[in-house]
Amino acid sequence: PKAVMIQHRSACNLVRVWSDYVGVRPDDRLAQMASMAFDNHVPEVYGAMHKRCTSVVVPDLMKRSGPDMVSWLAGKHVNVMVTVPSHLRSMSGPGVDVSTAALPHLRVLDIGGEALGKDVLDIWAPGRSLFNIYGPTEITVVCAGGRVQPGDEITIGHDLPTYNNRVLDPETLQECPTGVRGVLYTGGVGTARGYLDDEAKTAAKFVEVPSFGRMYCS
């Protein structure tokens, strides 16, 4: 596993930007599912603290219970959940109701970590705010996102506040014209210091880009 050096200010920025962007409120109940070894625990745990809302710790067995988790979430009145598409698929098997009638309190879904498919979007988005979120650990978990609804084109959205995403030619570090394939570079407050005890990898992945400053090359 890679050890990424994230600065305190970057983590604090993430917590503020993410919780404001998806609309976490003080009266919310936020599902806490991510392991401390997974970067998603930062917005889950500290986002709840920042907004002074309630963290609802999901037992390990419940995370793997598939459709049984639907009634558990309903019983716990969970409003906000951060998860991946495959987990939502496991919960919404044939004949399982995941509509707002079955989960009346679930208001916000933050989806990331995997490509969001139309099947998940069509089942889970109606009546809710579903955000497709993108970002590697190297830029402090998230750097782009957008709310998507059934029928929308599924993309990774737009820059989150304080982040700067650019598609560049890796040879020239110049921006690619629309429609030209390039590499995604990200800069901003969330950019990590680099990799612990790996100066060569840090130099290869974190580069100075003319006009944009220091950026992470995805």
Q: Would you write up a description of this structure?
A:
The chain has one domain: 3-Layer(aba) Sandwich (Rossmann fold). The chain has seven helices and 13 strands. The protein has helices at residues 8-22, 41-51, 60-63, 68-75, 85-91, 118-124, 199-205, and strands at residues 4-5, 29-32, 54-57, 80-83, 108-111, 129-134, 144-147, 158-159, 163-168, 183-188, 194-195, 206-209, 213-217. Strands 4-5-6-7-8 form a five-stranded mixed beta sheet, covered by helices on one side. It has a four-stranded antiparallel beta sheet with strand order 9-10-13-12. A two-stranded antiparallel sheet has the order 1-11. A hairpin with a 3-residue loop joins strand 12 (206-209) and strand 13 (213-217). Helix 1 (8-22) packs across helix 2 (41-51). InterPro entries: AMP-dep_synth/lig_dom, ANL_N_sf.
Q: Unreliable stretches, pLDDT < 50, 5 or more residues? A: none
- Number of domains as seen in the coordinates: 1
Q: What is the CATH class name?
A: Alpha Beta
CATH architectural type: 3-Layer(aba) Sandwich
Structural class: alpha/beta
Helix content: 25-40%
Query: Within the largest sheet, what's the order of strands?
Result: 4-5-6-7-8
- Cα(first) to Cα(last) distance is 17 Å
Oligomeric status = single chain
Shape: globular
Order of helices and strands: EHEHEHHEHEHEEEEEEHEE
At CATH level 3, the topology is Rossmann fold
Put simply, the count of helices is 7
Tell me the number of strands: 13
Percentage of β-strand residues: 15-25%
Largest sheet: 5 strands, mixed
- Taking all Cα atoms into account, the compactness measure Rg is 18 Å
Mean pLDDT: 96
